[in-house]
């Protein structure tokens, strides 16, 4: 069953066309990765799904019901985590979750059970201080807890990992992964590795419409490898190796780039390094960046 | 009802935990003490000045201070109370827009009108407590030092100023719905007050405008009667209701 349907949605701010005839669907119990550059319209799309922005034309449906602007009844199906969640800093996490529970209409008995349960899920069970002293990562985790409070059918996360350090990012990804079975997750990001770790389906927003839409498997098959790079300690080593292994580019005095090469090519390069007794500081398979994937898709 | 109670409770928690409550209480206690204190000190100050004034050929006669002197001072200070209160609460909604804290509440299904009603309640109750405290202190001191019966209708006069405060609150809420920053709300409220004050210069309009309500002091001295305020009271209540409705209607369509 489709949990979310956008049909021919357009949105314009002044003379700037943000979304242009955007259509996509998200089925139940999938994790949908919504990617695109900064300013591509991801947040605008999410805010329209939440009824915070009006739709110029087109229809958005959540769980089969049409989303209306202003008074948005469909929000009862949705848990929302904003990109930088802001809470009332003078409250403790328990007080804030209680307020959310009372507003969203969770029964008193359930609130009592659910709050400790959620705080444990997001690892905040011991943080019984006011929210104003929280780090960004802690706020993000509290954001997930409040979004899951009413057991939503859809969890919408707006760049939940973008502002976090690697540890914070991993924690959030782990939490999202652990709730995969309970709810449909739509999450926007521009960090491709996060998408690869947890998403079932991907939509790439470009020029106000989906330039790419499909399962992770389908997307993976489209992708080309970006090659690898080697960093050396000394400039001489880099020059020597460039003479031995042809077809590389200097990124800097000590860094060589091997564009378009495969894993097998990298193994061969490592063998050559060993045979010639050249010591590298770093060898790295280059993950395709959002930009490279983007260019691949858009230039098609 | 549960949503309304929960959000109103949150409003009061905010007033208490952000320390606003202490600032308000201290300010309004000071305002309450100030009027009788100044009245009490007036003869003493004149005595101090009398000698130096005598050298310049000015003689100061004996000054008689009554409860009326203190009440006159009370109404002179009133504008400071209004300003202090508006400054304290001009960010009641705009700070939530700026921080984005309302988004979570609205996406949790809190109807928008309940946000406005909760905030109205919190500001209204705060104003009532502050005003009652200030009035009570002045009234108590005046009764202790002098005799409140020399000031006619002093409770009714106090009520008119209280009602004027409610009109200012309705302006704060209206402009908070229309505008996005605290400064803009503060300026717009001030501008509106100035406009009404200017309109008050037209003799025909004097008895119609909310600013009439700030002139309770005339009532104390017996220069005006209670009936003279009826029109201004009715107009003010109508204005409060209208701005309340506009606030809610506009807020329902506001992009947050």
TrEMBL record, chain A:
Coiled coil: none annotated. Residues 4-232 form the ABC transporter domain. The keyword Ligase does not apply. GO terms for molecular function: ATP binding; ATP hydrolysis activity. Keywords: ATP-binding, Nucleotide-binding, Transport. CDD domains: ABC_DR_subfamily_A. SMART domains: AAA. It comes from the Bacteria. The keyword Metal-binding does not apply. This is ABC transporter ATP-binding protein. The lineage of its organism: Bacteria, Bacillati, Bacillota, Clostridia, Lachnospirales.
TrEMBL record, chain B:
GO terms for cellular component: plasma membrane. The chain crosses the membrane at residues 21-39, 78-95, 116-139, 159-178, 185-206, 226-251. It holds the Pfam family ABC2_membrane_2. The keyword Membrane applies. One of its GO terms (molecular function) is ABC-type transporter activity. Keywords: Membrane, Transmembrane, Transmembrane helix. The keyword Nucleotide-binding does not apply. PANTHER family: INTEGRAL MEMBRANE PROTEIN-RELATED (PTHR37305), MEMBRANE PROTEIN (PTHR37305:SF1). This is ABC transporter permease. The lineage of its organism: Bacteria, Bacillati, Bacillota, Clostridia, Lachnospirales.
